[in-house]
Amino acid sequence: MKLITGNLSPYSAKVRMQLYAMGIDDVEFDLPASFFMGKLSTYSPIGRIPVLEVEEGIVPESEVIAEYLDDCYPDRSMLGESPWIRSQVRLISRIADVYLMNNIFMALPQVNRKTRVDAVRDLLAGQVTRGMGALEQHIGQGDYAVGGKLTRADCTLVPALFLCERTVPMLDVENPILATTHVAAYWDKIQGNEFAAKVLDEMDRGLRERQDGTERKRIEAAIAKQKAQL
Ligand SMILES: N[C@@H](CCC(=O)N[C@@H](CS)C(=O)NCC(=O)O)C(=O)O
Questions:
Q1: For atom 14 of ligand 1, which residue has the closest CA?
Q2: Has residue 208 been placed in a domain?
Q3: Separation of 113 CA from ligand 1 center, angstroms?
Q4: CATH no. for residue 33?
Q5: In the structure, which protein residues have their CB atom closer than 6 angstroms to any atom of ligand 1?
Q6: Of ligand 1's atoms, which has the minimum distance to the CA of residue 47?
Q7: From 17, 42, 46, 49, mutation site for ligand 1 pocket: most ligand atoms within 8 A of C-beta
Q8: Which of 60, 76, 92 is a domain's end point?
Q9: Structural domain span for residue 155
Q10: Ligand 1 atom index nearest CA of 60
């Protein structure tokens, strides 16, 4: 299997955390130059990462990949043991995906103060605040997002909370975790988990490389190589 993934991509980080936690170590990681050239859609029509390449074809969409991995390795499934737990894992994962990550992602073009449209930033930041309010009420109060062990809820939440802490302030909006009690306590604890720490480290590296220009240089070199092969 091959995973099209990027260090800073939170949806990719979610799948990588699941792979690490399930102990699936035979998946090759790749990020083709076509992604940076806006041409990933010739490989995967949705044109976004992550994409899992398997024998039969491609599996896009992080949540679909997460389900696929659980289906492939039922003895290591990270969905939980009872219908109730599974419903809560799916719920937390959905809150993190739909109400946190998606809105933060759409707000990213508003980071640039010179071109920022305040009304767009405010609309999306308001949706993040609302999603965080829901998460505060649904999240577990132990070491994990749901129940007493690491689940797919944690795999989605960890990258989503990284975005809340590190990206939302770039919009001149306060980190929404600061207004919470249970989410803040969870965030403190989960960063000590080895699989969470590994993806957070990767995302941190991705952010640093974006900010210091290393990523741009790598992309330019990959695109130049790709063009030379055409
Ligand atoms: N719903 C998708 C979202 C994936 C997504 O938006 N990925 C971003 C990177 S984190 C991407 O590929 N963006 C490229 C683009 O929007 O063209 C999922 O869960 O996988």
A1: 48
A2: no
A3: 23
A4: 3.40.30.10
A5: 9-11, 47-50, 61-63, 105
A6: 17
A7: 49
A8: 76
A9: 83-190
A10: 20
Name which residue sits closest to atom 17 of ligand 1, judged by CA.
48
pLDDT per position as a tens digit, 139-178: 999 999 999 999 999 999 999 999 999 999 999 999 999 9
Is 211 contained in some domain? no
- The CATH number given to whatever domain includes residue 106 is 1.20.1050.10
- Tens digits of per-residue pLDDT, 12-62? 999 999 999 999 999 999 999 888 888 999 999 999 999 999 999 999 999
In which residue are the tokens 């802490």 written? Answer: 165
Name every residue whose Cβ is closer than 8 Å to that of residue 137 and which is 6 or more positions away in sequence: none
Nearest CA to ligand 1 atom 2: 61
Q: Atom 9 in ligand 1: which residue has the minimum CA distance?
A: 9
Q: Among residues 115, 170, 61, which one has the least CA distance to residue 162?
A: 170
Q: Do 31 and 120 share a structural domain? A: no
72 and 115 share a domain? Answer: no
Does any domain span residue 138? yes
The answer to whether position 210 is within a domain reads no
The residue from 50, 76, 102 where one domain ends is 76
